[in-house]
Specification:
single chain, 598 residues, alpha+beta, Beta-Lactamase, Heat Shock Protein 90, six-stranded antiparallel sheet
Length: 598
């Protein structure tokens, strides 16, 4: 019972906790989005700073190139002096050089560079192919081994011919010093990568250099491949070797394909949120403990009444309702006890009514089972009687026909014309009686002589039916067509009889046009729907149900032969296979018989 009270306390507190959790979740993700945007802004600012740095050097190189072309100084002395003056004017550049179209440095502010061939450099190859200016990837100074980048400008004469290249060598440390000024928060770091993902420089909070940034991160790879800003989470081992999560952003630098990066530790970025979550969790825990203690201290009387209600409910469950004391304890529980009393009385009455109804229902079920058993036995006896009667009547009818035919042959010339006519009527009547008995025998055999179901190819079934009807089809110049048909589970002999009867109907009941019969099939959910259509005389709607009744005919025997049992046999075959059969027709337009097989 105490556990139940704790559960009630939990149910009361749970919505409040869910609301608080929702608030803290929104706070957390809002803070996370703010930190992502801040990191992206830092990376964007770093990209803009580097772009401005490169643009400034590019403009300076262009101005120097134009001045050299206009002044036409003597190489290399005057150009060396000119470049040395430019070196003093632009402290962000380590050295200036003039490179001829073959890639050889003819003049430089650093004399050690003169004569060096840099024709294999990628940036110079681009300029020789016509690019106006270019920025190299990260390079290593061939003389002193420092990491550098080169900003080079193509210089042309008035006729657009390449005269030379002005190349400015910038130290990576200069970029690093500018990047440190962009750091906005504790723990934030900035990096720059060339177009191949090689780290150019990076910073740490105090401005030094370290090597924990790696160019193989997926955010950098995606930024280089797509040329768009990217942001995500990276995990890096820092300091003590333990992995730490960082919010990282990568922003491509416009025009040159380099990428600027910024990152900040998740632990520092989300420190305020984490502290708030710990405080809120502690307060919620204290509230839950206080609520539980309060529930225990005031639960004595409540538990007693709840136990009484429990015993009362158990008695009701056993079908032995008891009376609950309604005048003690908490008022609401007393009212609940009164409701229990009323419910117990009602359940007792309904239980008695249900028991009486159940007894009546059992009697009715037993009566129906006996009736069904008697009906099944009667049907079996009727089928057996029809089979035996039709089978046993065959022999006396054959005797009658034989003797009548013998009389006709022996006394045909000795009797008058009236006697000959009577003999003809007797033979015709007995023959029709034989046909009726034979059809009745076929009808009874559908249930008594049926074969077990097996997989049947309906195309083969139709071919067998057409073979049986070959003479009739040829005599009436009938045309029978058939769509592809499926395999089904059924009695092959009965299915042959089914198609044979439906095709024979289409051939027999035709008008002045030659009979045309078409057989098709379509699948609907869990069964096949087959159609056998013709272009014959049709059937009026009022007779659509009547034609499936045994021995029912719509025409005289003189006009159309038959006993009127063929469609009744078709209906019984289809029903044995678990389907149904129906007809759709229009007088003088044709008839289509439909039937289904699972």
């Amino acid at each position: 019972m105490h556990g139940t009270l704790l559960l009630l306390v939990a149910v009361v507190l749970l919505p409040l906790l869910i609301v608080q959790a929702g608030i803290y979740t929104v706070w957390y993700y809002t803070r996370w989005s703010e930190q992502e945007l801040a990191t992206l802004d830092t990376a964007t600012e770093a990209a803009a700073t580097f772009a401005a740095f490169v643009d400034d050097i590019h403009r300076q190189a262009s101005a120097i190139g134009d001045a050299i072309v206009q002044l036409k100084p003597k190489f290399p002395d005057q150009v060396n002096v000119f470049l040395a003056a430019a070196d003093e004017s632009y402290p962000s550049v380590r050295s200036w050089s003039w490179i001829d179209p073959k890639g050889v440095i003819l003049a430089s502010s650093q004399s050690k560079m003169i004569g060096v061939n840099v024709g294999d450099r990628g940036y110079l190859q681009g300029l020789l192919r016509g690019r106006p200016w270019a920025v190299s990837d990260l390079l290593t100074d061939r003389l002193i081994g420092d990491r550098i980048i080169v900003v080079a400008d193509r210089v042309e004469d008035r006729k657009g011919r390449l005269v030379g290249v002005v190349a400015a060598v910038a130290d990576v440390k200069t970029l690093g010093e500018r990047a440190v000024a962009l750091q906005h928060t504790v723990g934030e770091a900035i990096a720059l990568f060339d177009r191949h993902g090689v780290l150019v420089f990076n910073t740490q909070p105090k401005g030094g250099m370290f090597e924990d940034w790696r160019p193989d991160d997926p955010i950098l790879t995606k930024a280089i491949a797509e040329g768009k800003p990217q942001i995500g989470v990276l995990r890096r081992a820092i300091g003590n070797g333990k992995p730490e999560a960082f919010i990282a952003a990568r922003v491509p630098v416009r025009d040159i394909g380099w990428v600027a990066g910024a990152r900040r530790p998740v632990s520092q970025a989300m420190a305020g949120v984490h502290a708030g979550l710990w405080i809120a969790g502690g307060l919620n825990f204290l509230v839950a403990v206080a609520s539980a203690l309060l529930a225990f201290s005031t639960s004595g009387g409540l538990i007693r009444q709840l136990r009484m209600l429990q015993l009362h409910a158990e008695a009701i469950g056993r079908g032995q309702p008891t009376r609950f004391a309604e005048d003690a304890g908490i008022h609401e529980l007393a009212q609940l006890g009164a409701a229990f009393n009323r419910m117990g009385d009602s359940i007792l009455r309904h239980t008695q009514q249900l028991e009486a109804a159940n007894q009546r229902l059992q009697h009715e079920i037993a009566d129906r089972e006996r009736t069904a058993e008697q009906l099944m036995k009667s049907n079996e006896e009727l089928e057996q009687f029809a089979y035996v009667a039709s089978h046993d009547l065959q022999e006396p009818l054959r005797v009658v026909v034989g003797y009548v035919q013998l009389l006709d042959r022996r006394y045909k010339t000795r009797l008058d014309a009236g006697a000959d006519e009577f003999l003809h009527y007797i033979v015709d009547g007995v023959s029709r009686m034989q046909q009726l008995i034979g059809d009745l025998l076929d009808y009874s055999r559908i249930g008594t002589r049926a074969k077990p179901f097996q997989t049947v190819d309906l195309r083969t079934v139709v071919d067998r039916a057409l073979a049986n009807l070959q003479r009739v089809v040829e005599e009436n110049d009938a045309k029978v067509t058939c769509d592809p048909l499926p395999n089904v589970r059924g009695d092959e002999s009965q299915l042959v009889q089914l198609f044979q009867n439906l095709i024979a109907n289409g051939v027999k009941f035709h008008n002045e046009r030659a009979p045309e019969i078409h057989i098709s099939a379509r699948r609907e959910q869990d069964h096949w729907v087959f159609a056998v259509g013709d272009n014959g005389i049709g059937i009026e709607r009022q007779y659509w149900e009547r034609i499936f009744v045994i021995f029912q005919r719509l025409h005289t025997r003189r006009k159309y032969e038959g006993t009127g049992i063929g469609l009744a046999i078709c209906k019984r075959i289809v029903e044995r296979h678990g389907g149904r059969i129906w007809v759709e027709s229009e007088p003088n337009q044709g008839t289509t018989f439909f039937f289904t097989i699972p």
